[in-house]
Write a structure and sequence with these properties.
It is a single chain. The chain is of the alpha/beta class. It has helices at about 25-30, 50-65, 80-90, 110-115, 130-140, 155-175, 190-200, 220-240, 265-280, 290-300, and strands at about 20, 35-40, 70-75, 95-100, 120, 145-150, 180-185, 210-215, 250-255, 310-315. A six-stranded mixed beta sheet has the order 1-2-10-7-8-9. Strands 5-4-3-6 form a four-stranded parallel beta sheet, with helices on both faces. Helix 7 (about 190-200) links the parallel strand 7 (about 180-185) and strand 8. Helix 3 (about 80-90) runs parallel beside helix 4 and helix 6 crosses helix 8 (about 220-240). The radius of gyration is 19 Å and the shape is globular. It starts with 18 loop residues before the first strand and ends in a 25-residue tail after the last strand. Bound molecules: pyridoxal-5'-phosphate. Pyridoxal-5'-phosphate binds near residues 78, 187, 190, 192 and 288.
């Protein structure tokens, strides 16, 4: 078994996150068994999957003597919000390069970014960090030691965090004496997916790692496939594991991207309403709403059977709900009644 612990890690969140069974949701769907991994409860800045990655990435930044971190994302980036909080708690200066323009009023994640006191740079169409090199140059010229955190925290270090997350889940699964046929989650920058794939192989579970693609509309889906596989392989190298993956090992379901990243439709509205009204759990409009919407469809269409046992990995994001108030129509849906 590979040693997962040789990379430095700084404590930022509350782990392990709970793993619970969703009985009412299962009943409503007439099976399968559905479990949830509550990474919306990682604790830092209202939680989310980026907290796991940041525990390893920030440790690397500190080891390299940085005083300033830079990252990029959309205006409602959960990754940027958790990075801003992590930087604040470690006494680091934080710069966020955000796509779009400053809105009249900050809401959701952006509002929290401001509360955390980070420096926000508006980048127009460049929401994936295209403007970062120029910023690095400027900060360096000012005498700072900047450290660039990749888009979504998705490099090998971020993926190791999700290998560690898999290990955490594996201990909970065994203690509960359950097995999972599928682990379903939102996949967008790749490290969650790569880390879970690697964990699944190292722990030799007969379980499908199903990423629901969130973001196909604005990039080449084939390139994203290759990115995840390459990241899983380079992460295996980093931890001296001889696991290797090919495109055939990857399950990336791109059937639910709808009109693209952050465009909320009936699929997301229904999923958010179902989870809230049967289990009292909040999903987010951009990632987990789409991922659960995909899972519900896979169940309805028989791609996942009533005899299966599914783990839905909740990756966080609910602070964005407030920013999407105009697109959410969940009060029109009476989902809690039994069909
Ligand atoms: C970033 C994010 C994801 C996707 O994780 P990746 O590792 O970037 O693929 C899923 N859900 C939420 C809420 C996120 O913020």
């Amino acid at each position: 078994m590979s040693d997962l612990t040789h990379l430095p890690r700084v404590a930022l969140g509350f782990f392990p996150t709970p793993l619970n069974e969703l009985n009412r949701l299962s009943q409503k769907l007439n099976g399968p068994k559905i479990f949830i991994k509550r990474d919306d409860n990682t604790g830092l800045a209202l939680g989310g999957n980026k907290t796991r990655k940041l525990e390893y990435i920030m440790a690397d930044a500190l080891a390299k003597g940085t005083d300033t971190v830079i990252t990029a994302g959309a205006a409602q980036s959960n990754h940027c919000r958790q990075t801003a909080a992590a930087a604040a708690s470690l006494g680091l200066e934080c710069h966020l390069v955000l796509g779009g323009q400053a809105p009249k009023q900050a809401q959701g994640n952006l509002l929290l970014d401001q509360i955390y006191g980070c420096h926000i740079h508006w980048a127009g169409v460049n929401r994936k960090g295209e403007d970062i090199p120029a910023l690095v140059e400027r900060l360096t010229a000012d005498g700072k030691k900047p450290y660039v955190i990749p888009y979504g925290g998705s490099n090998e270090i971020g993926a190791v965090a999700f290998l560690a997350a898999y290990k955490e889940m594996e201990a909970q699964r065994r203690a509960m004496d359950v097995t999972f046929s599928h682990i379903v989650f939102a996949s967008s920058s790749g490290a969650t997916h790569a880390g879970l794939m690697l964990g699944n192989k190292i722990y030799a579970n007969d379980c499908q790692i199903v990423g629901i693609n969130i973001d196909k509309g604005e990039r080449d889906a084939v390139a994203f496939d290759e990115h995840i596989v390459a990241l899983a392989n380079s992460t295996a190298n980093l931890i001296n594991s001889d696991c290797q993956f090919t495109r055939d090992d990857l399950i990336l379901n791109s059937a639910y991207v709808g009109d693209g990243y952050g465009v909320i439709g009936a699929l997301e509205n229904e999923a958010i309403a179902v989870m809230a009204q049967t289990e009292g759990i909040l999903l987010d409009p951009v990632y987990t709403g789409r991922a659960l919407g995909g899972l519900l469809d896979m169940i309805r269409t028989g791609q996942i059977k009533s005899t299966d046992s599914v783990l839905f990995w909740h990756t966080g994001g609910a602070p964005a709900l407030f920013a999407y108030a105009n697109d959410l129509h969940t009060n029109d849906l009476e989902v809690a009644r039994k069909d």
